[in-house]
Amino acid sequence: MSTSTTPAPTRIYPSLKAAWLPLGALCLAFFVEMVDNTLMSIALPTIGRDLGGDTTSLQWVSGAYALTFGGLLLTAGSVADRFGRRRVLQIGLALFGTLSLAVLLVSSTGELIALRAALGIAAAAMAPITNSLVFRLFDDDKLRMRAMTMMIVVGMSGFVIGPLLGGTVLTHLSWHWLLLVNAPIALVAVVGVRLGVPRDTAEGLTRDRLDVAGAALSILTIGLACYTFTSAVENGWSSPLTIGSILGAALGLALFIWRERTAATPMLDLSLFSHGTVRGSTIAQVGTSIAMTGVMFALILHFQYAWGWSPMDAGFANLPIIVTMFAATPISEGLASRFGHRIAAFVGTIFLVVGLLAMAWSVEQSYVAIAAAMVVITIGLRTVMTICAVALVGAMPKNRTSMGTALNDTAQEVGTSVGTAAVGTLIAALVTTVLPDGAWSPELITAYFAGERVIFIALAVVVGLLSGWGALTLTSSRSLDEHATPTEEVTEAS
């Protein structure tokens, strides 16, 4: 619903510089929710010693956040499209900052798991909205493209830089500071959104009733699907718990599809997937997230265990990814403007596949070889993820932009879960089921390098198929307006 009975004034900015306050606030909000995905992973051994947690409970310190975050993205996007994107984002930021302070009261791993799950809920209220609000700041296509690019780079940097920040903080401070720092960041972001982002108008929101049943089924389906991969790594694919989770997710998906096809006001209009851009962008984003997560997961073990590097050194080893994310802007924008979204995204997929195959060769070489493969992979990630995110949001009806970014984020979260589970399962099958304490033996290191080669080749095949197929369904237009006609058709049909 509208936040006011009279239309709120729109605030269009003539440049990125003029929009520094709202754009900075949105980037900050996106960064803090993404960095929290990986920030705690490097602190798990320290947390285990401090709180006395076992291996399973420590896995859930990371898993609880991903589970609630991934399960609630679609629901949060649907709520924001009805009750106001700026309003929901401010509530999410306030909750995220306040909950982060609660880490001072944590005295057991169970309490920390509950806190991480609650933070995932707050982050889900932020993620689908930050990108969609960028479109409201500008009416120029090139500015929208650059602003969306900036948002995606910041988000990807947050995901990658988490272990680096975590390792640096743990060198000097308690692990509690990894969460406490969220509070002032969230406060600054709330102020920036409040002062710089225009209020929602009635015309920009949908008046449809909230599909509560559809929301519940989406949470059940995505939650069980995410847990399936966690359980597979922890208990095995043939365990009753994993099989039950798979069957539950399948049943939930079937019920969700039936509900959305029969509901008068569905949460997710499934007819949108008949639009090639929506369908293709979603598939491609799953592929890119599988690649990014799989590479990071394998290299963390490579640097810290096989090579014996410290957590901070392993974090700094990811710098080529971070630097390339920013440096590759002319490449991705140049490809999009010259060849259009379809060819540009497909070229990005080629970079991804070549980079993954190069990584398979470089694992037994020097760090320089690995860094070079990182650069090639990141150029591909940067190009595909940016173009598909812009195309997906641009293809959605104007009153469903939050749902568009929710679909984008959900696809990435599914890819993250698949990538982590796939690499974890392959390591267990090809190398060892238990990572030994202390230095690895030469035999284990050799086995790990051989396993990595198989992993990166497998990732190249899977990602090439998913992202390549998705890229070829995009349009060949060079601007954000190529989807105006399909969007209008969807709007009229609804």
UniProtKB/TrEMBL annotation:
The chain crosses the membrane at residues 58-76, 88-107, 113-135, 147-165, 177-197, 209-230, 236-258, 289-308, 314-331, 343-361, 367-393, 414-435, 455-474. It is a multi-pass membrane protein. Gene3D superfamilies: MFS general substrate transporter like domains (1.20.1250.20), Multidrug resistance protein D (1.20.1720.10). InterPro entries: MFS, MFS_dom, MFS_trans_sf. The keyword Electron transport does not apply. The keyword Transmembrane applies. This is EmrB/QacA subfamily drug resistance transporter. It comes from Microbacterium endophyticum.
